[in-house]
Amino acid sequence: MSLPITRRLPWAYVLIVTLLAVSGTMQMPIASRYRIVAVPGLAWLGDFWLTHKLHYLGAIALLTLVSYLATRWLLEWRRDHALTPFGLARVALLAGLILTGAVRVLKNLPGVSFSPDPIMLVDWAHLGLAFGLGVLALARRFAKASYVCKR
Ligand code: HEM
Fold it and tell me: Which atom of ligand 1 is nearest to 124's Cα?
């Protein structure tokens, strides 16, 4: 069971999350350490500032898409549709990623500083939630379940 939306939206979601996952992973930074940059065509992954900006672009795109879907959900779809446990888990993971991502954006602003222990927790939570989103997508595929169902 899926929502009455065009196929473009799920594809946009997949593209945006892939962009965020790749650009986010490259922030760690692993591209130079594991010689990913030596693979023809992947040298740009070693450019920290480029992947950093791409992550911010991906975050803007994700916030736009999520705002659009949340608005339509609240105004139209929730009358006839409900979230399955997979759907609820995805909403929770995305909300956590947006929240922890926003704190990391704040931390990156000049003149803003947080104490090291809580900010380390936020960094680890962001990474863990990103991992969780990937595991959830795989689990849903194996379970052949959906994120939404008819009421
Ligand atoms: C599907 C969504 C997302 C995924 C998969 C993702 C993934 C990641 C990963 C793997 C990292 C590196 C983790 C680390 O350094 O410990 C990262 C860092 C970061 N993410 Fe995300 N992220 C997502 C959404 C967001 C959003 C929505 C925002 C902003 C609102 C955001 C802002 C950041 C920031 C600021 C950093 C740190 C960059 C730096 O300063 O080094 N992320 N992300």
Answer: 16
Ligand 1 site residues, Cβ closer than 6 angstroms: 17, 20-21, 24-25, 27-28, 52, 55, 59, 62, 97-98, 101-102, 104-105, 108, 123, 126-127, 130, 133
Question: Do the Cβ atoms of 58 and 19 come closer than 8 Å?
Answer: yes
Chunked into runs of 10 residues, the chain (151 residues) has average pLDDT values of 79 97 90 91 94 98 97 94 97 98 95 91 97 98 94 86
Preceding peptide of 40 cis, ω within 30°: no
Q: Which residue has the tokens 């500083």?
A: 113
